[in-house]
Amino acid sequence: MANLLKPDCINCLCKSSCFHELSDEELEFISKRRVEVTYKNKETICKQGAFAPHIMYLKEGLVKVYLEHQDRNLILCLEPPGTFLGLESLAQDKIFHYSCVTYKHSSFCLFEIDAFKELMERNAKFATRIYGELNERIVRVYDRMLTLTQKQVHGRVADILRCLSERIYKSNEFPMTLTRKDFSEITVMSVETLSRVFKELKDEGIVELEGKTVRILDVDKLHQISRTS
Amino acid sequence: MANLLKPDCINCLCKSSCFHELSDEELEFISKRRVEVTYKNKETICKQGAFAPHIMYLKEGLVKVYLEHQDRNLILCLEPPGTFLGLESLAQDKIFHYSCVTYKHSSFCLFEIDAFKELMERNAKFATRIYGELNERIVRVYDRMLTLTQKQVHGRVADILRCLSERIYKSNEFPMTLTRKDFSEITVMSVETLSRVFKELKDEGIVELEGKTVRILDVDKLHQISRTS
DNA sequence: CGCGAGCTTGACGTTGTTCAACTAGAGTGG
DNA sequence: CCACTCTAGTTGAACAACGTCAAGCTCGCG
Questions:
Q1: How many other C-beta atoms are found inside a 10 Å radius of the C-beta of residue B25?
Q2: Concatenated DSSP letters for B107-170?
Q3: Residue B137: its chain A contacts at CB < 8 A?
Q4: What percent of chain A has pLDDT over 70?
Q5: Which of A82, A139, A151, B143 gets the most CB atoms within 10 Å of its CB?
Q6: Last residue of a domain, one of A145, A172, A206
Q7: What is the pLDDT of residue A1?
């Protein structure tokens, strides 16, 4: 570790805004019950059904959160840096309710689940913030459910492109780290269908998909496709 | 009102178990910021996008929670008595994130949202219980998402029948208060397809659907259909 | 140069929707 | 009490959307 200062939650620059509610004493408490881990691409961060010993905070990278179902998976959402994973395991049974896998090299802070829970019970404002995090996720999942059940293939592809552009990378141009297989899993369609939809989007000049970058050329049309399914 | 005692949260027999965490003083506090309302069948309880002035607690009845999307709706879940509605509006913007409509005559307690929130900040154990309620919902929604995106029509119908039998009515025999239209909306398919699936389930002796009662005759087969899609 | 993974393309099959016709039962008015 | 209407439900046939299968392409890599 190049940094002379032992990293901790007090001085951390990438900590969640939820932690702003904590006193220095509380930050020190949680800092002592925290470890940092990095994962390579395609590594499993947590496994559906396994014990949940910690809450995970994604500092850097990109992960998919998914349910395992027979040979197919259902991707619940993608998560960019700055999000907690495993919050669903706090309340009931300390079992992971989903699996997570990295889409690229990613680093995490892991917090002992009991310490995290204790902090929530001690500090109501912190609890409220965490509540808000979970809440944001649930509202996003509602929306995703709408996309997957009510929209046709074009709308679904448009929605995921918008998600990557607006929520994950916050730019109209972003790297395509996902393979066609990944992307088809997220949009819940076959790779072949995805390929055909991409072709149409390219032909109509709505997106550029050359090499390893995606460029959204016509945001309005993409929105329109998203709306009109 | 036949009851001589003014109804309050302290003596209420159908209050949420979350309220067991509250002191008498806190119960009195929330009781004063509470009203009771009853709705007839098909009445709208809350409207997606509108201000959320209260948290709703379903004492008796049955409601559908759904997102509005163009001319079609996406039903997020059904809720039986004993559940809170509107918890998603606590954290962020005090806007209802979904609409709710009764499926039959239903009665609610409505709690002022700010009072509810204050209670959560004052009493961490109560907050934890409410957190748990939201959490249970999110996990259930994940599962529903799996059903709707990964299973074929037979599996989806089987899942909803199981939901009604196991979670809502807790019996293998229950009244069919839903119309075919309602049911098709829940299972996300056309009424015609639903009709055909019902016919097959009847023909195979798995369920009985005569008149206004549903009787599940072969639970194992229903589970199997649910699993094998 | 050959190999293989990831991607694309076309032909065809499956699933479920749509449209239209028909049926049964409930409610209404004469 | 009966004819009439209306709605909910059922059934069949045509059709659309998407998946599957198979073949071919492209590009990086040994």
A1: 8
A2: EEEEEEHHHHHHHHHH-HHHHHHHHHHHHHHHHHHHHHHHHHHH--HHHHHHHHHHIIIIIIS-
A3: 138
A4: 97
A5: A151
A6: A145
A7: 45
- What length is written for chain A? 229
> A24-32 vs A113-122: helix axis angle to the nearest 10?
160
Domain that holds residue B141: 2-145
Is residue B5 over pLDDT 60?
A: no
Instruction: Mark yes or no for CB contact B91/A135 under 8 Å.
Output: yes
Q: Give chain B's domain count.
A: 2
Question: What average pLDDT does the structure give for chain B?
Answer: 93
Whether A103 and A205 map to the same domain: the answer is: no
Query: What CATH code is carried by the domain that includes residue B210?
Result: 1.10.10.10
CA distance A4 to chain B (A): 38
**What would the pLDDT profile of A64-122 be if each residue is shown by its tens digit?**
999 998 888 999 999 999 999 999 999 878 999 999 999 999 999 999 999 999 999 99
CB pairs under 8 A between A and B: 119
Give the residue on B whose Cα is nearest the Cα of A142: B76
**Predicted TM-score (pTM) above 0.70:** yes
Q: Do B132 and A76 touch (CB under 8 A)?
A: no
Q: Nearest CA to CA, how far is A131 from chain B (Å)?
A: 7
Chain B contact for A74, CB < 8 A? yes
A139 at the B interface (CB within 8 A)?
yes
- Whether A2 shows a pLDDT value over 50: the answer reads no
Domain boundary among A90, A113, A145: A145
Tens of pLDDT along A162-211? 999 999 999 999 999 999 999 999 999 999 999 999 999 999 999 999 88
Given a contact cutoff of 8 angstroms between Cβ atoms, the answer to whether A155 and A228 are in contact is yes
Residues A130 and A184 placed together within one structural domain of the fold: no
Q: What is the DSSP letter of B18?
A: G
Pick from B128, B138, B150: CB nearest A138: B138
Closest nucleotide relative to residue A211's CA, C1' based: D27
Instruction: Say whether both A11 and A116 belong to one domain.
Output: yes
Joined together, the tokens standing for residue A59 give: 């500092």
Amino acid at A8: D
Residues on chain A touching B136 (C-beta within 8 angstroms) = 91-92
Protein-contacted bases of chain C (C-beta within 7 A): 6-11, 15-20
Give A7's pLDDT tier (boundaries 50, 70, 90).
confident
| Closest residue to B124, CB basis, from A124, A134, A148 | A124
pLDDT at residue A12, as a whole number? 87
